[in-house]
Amino acid sequence: QVRLVESGGGLVQAGGSLRLSCAASGRTFGSYAMGWFRQTPGKEREFVAAISSSGGNTEYADSVKGRVTISRDNAKNTVYLQMNSLKPEDTAVYYCAADRTIVRLTNILYDYWGQGTQVTVSS
Fold first, then answer.
1. How far is Cα 30 from Cα 114, in angstroms, rounded to an integer?
2. Do 52 and 105 contact (CB within 8 A), yes or no?
3. Are strands 33-39 and 46-51 parallel, antiparallel or unpaired?
4. Sheet harboring 18-24: ordered strands across?
5. Higher pLDDT, 21 or 1
6. What is the dihedral of CA 29, 48, 117, 14, to 10 degrees?
7. pLDDT value at position 1?
8. Cα separation of 50 and 59, whole Å?
9. What is the pLDDT of residues 93-113, one digit of tens each?
10. Sign of torsion, CA 92 93 98 102?
11. Handedness of CA 105, 111, 112, 118 (dihedral sign)
12. What does the DSSP 8-state code read for residue 101?
């Protein structure tokens, strides 16, 4: 069982930056692949970025590539999402997810999910 708690969301102007954090419980964080997804009302949850358990492999959605960086600190049981050059269309609830056995990092079928943190980008 893994408990995930996101933080770092908020209101930012277009062009600004935010860093989201996701703190995980447990002593086996280093064995989990981690992902960030986002969702807006009436739309399906969509993939944003993911990182393998070792941190050696990362994946990004085309919509955020070049503006977003995912990283992890296994000693702190935390994964980060640095978001730069934010756009109004980045407004969403951002969710952190974890899975030990997922093969495709972009797949939404992660086992564990956080409660989400709201990101609002004003124009």
1. 17
2. yes
3. antiparallel
4. 4-7, 18-24, 78-83, 68-73
5. 21
6. 140
7. 83
8. 5
9. 999 999 998 888 888 899 999
10. negative
11. positive
12. S
Q: C-alpha angle with apex 109: 71 to 58, nearest 5 degrees?
A: 25
pLDDT tens, position by position, 36-84: 999 999 999 999 999 999 999 999 999 999 999 999 999 999 999 999 9
**Residue 35 clears pLDDT 90, i.e. is over it:** yes
What pLDDT is recorded for position 103?
84
User: Given the DSSP bridges, would you call strands 10-13 and 117-122 parallel, antiparallel or unpaired?
Assistant: parallel
CB count within 10 Å of CB 57 equals 11
Both structure tokens of 80: 């980060």
34 closest CA partner among 89, 94, 93, 80 = 80
Distance CA 111, CA 99 (A): 5
